[in-house]
Amino acid sequence: MRQIWIPKAGPPEVLEVREARDPLPRRGEMRIRVEASGVNFADIMGRMGIYPDLPKMPVVVGYEVAGRVDAVGEEVEGDWVGRDVLAMTRFGGYSDVVCVPEAQVQARPPGMTAEQGAAIPVNYLTAYQLLVAMGGLRAGETVLVHSAGGGVGIAAIQLARALGATVIGTASAGKHDYLKSIGVEHCIDYRSEDFAKRVPELTHGRGVELVIDAVGGRSFGKSYACLAPTGRLGMFGMSAAATQKSRSVLGFVKAAATTPWLQFNPMRLMNDNKGVFGVNLGHMWEEVDRIQGWLERLLEQYRAGEVAPLVDRTFKFDEAALAHHYIQDRKNTGKVLLVP
To answer: How far apart are CA 130 and CA 276, in angstroms?
Structure first.
């Protein structure tokens, strides 16, 4: 098999393609010949050496794959062999062969490509947890989606529209036409506009019921200020700490220093009638039944046409560095994938 390794922290060019023997599925596992692997910002932070959950380097990252089952271990039904699937991987997804516990695998609906399948697990489960499971978004409410053109952003927009909510999105100007075409009511250019000023203008001073924010640092405080009474802020990342392509202590310190730690104290939250919560899908591995239930619901929405993964671009394994550059340069609208 071929895998993409991070041998040491550094810029995208540190990524290496290596070969190894194909793994054998253990009890309760199935082996997947991977046709597409998802690339996520957590992978990039891991490569930079600033992702706290990363195993010791050298390491193969990757949280999601899609492909076809070609072997199963004991206690797994043999009829899985030959089926097209998508799966979540706890690292190791940057491989063209993976062994995955049965509980982390779902059959792909008819007509769903491997590229679409690999674009679902991380982005759509994260968006579902933010908007539905914890954000409680309802019809008639308004959500502010930061990084609206990214993978989670597109997923959140689709889920919000399916719920009957209004969407305000922040993105660079070049992505606005597409975002409006999929239902974003108002687009804010984060490079030239202050969203903390624009949101009150767009909502006639009321604010929004939900904000989802993966930027972090100063953005968390500004997002909180955009909330209406009973509003909720969902935090799920800290891209403000990864402004360079190699580890930057100054960038991390700056992001931490501008995080509004005191703003979210219990007395302030009670008096403001607002809520703050965090999401890290990578810490939900023990919630197997819950995650599978969310994923089954998302696949139902796919069949109903309510969600449709947008794949922006695919890169070959030996182009993995270009894939990381592409995301860090904020060029993608939708999902970026690696294909063996």
So the answer is: 11
Kindly provide the b/e burial profile for residues 27-62, where b requires at least 16 CB atoms within 10 angstroms of the residue's own CB.
Answer: eebbbbbbbbbbbbbbbbbbbbebbeebeeeeebbb
| Helix (H/G/I), strand (E/B), else coil: 213 | strand
Question: Residue 276: helix, strand or coil by DSSP?
Answer: strand
Q: Which CATH architecture has domain 2-120+309-339?
A: Alpha-Beta Complex (3.90)
> Tokens for 150?
């990214």
Specify whether the CB–CB gap between 3 and 95 falls below 8 A: yes
Two tokens at 19? 């070969």
Strand partners, 232: 210, 275
Q: What is the pLDDT of residues 164-183, one digit of tens each?
A: 999 999 999 999 999 999 99
| DSSP result, 140-205 | T-EEEETTTTSHHHHHHHHHHHHHT-EEEEEE-GGGHHHHHHTT-SEEEETTTS-HHHHHHHHTTT
Of residues 164, 175, 251, 176, the one with CA closest to residue 216: 251
Q: At what angle do helices 195-202 and 218-225 cross, to 10 degrees?
A: 20
CA distances from 64 to 150, 179, 307 (A): 16, 25, 18
- Give the Cβ contact number of residue 278 at 10 Å: 12
Strand-by-strand arrangement of the 142-145 sheet = 186-189, 166-171, 142-145, 208-213, 227-235, 275-278
Find out whether 87 and 66 touch, Cβ atoms under 8 Å.
Answer: yes
Q: Where are the domains of the chain?
A: 2-120+309-339, 123-281
Token pair recorded at residue 34:
């991977």
Q: Could you report the per-residue pLDDT of 265-320, keeping only the tens digit for each?
A: 899 999 999 999 999 999 999 999 999 999 999 999 999 999 999 999 999 999 99
Q: Which overall architecture, per CATH, does domain 123-281 show?
A: 3-Layer(aba) Sandwich (3.40)
Residue 30 has pLDDT above 70, yes or no: yes
What are the residues whose beta carbons fall under 8 Å from the beta carbon of 311, sequence distance 6 or more?
115, 116, 119, 334, 335, 337
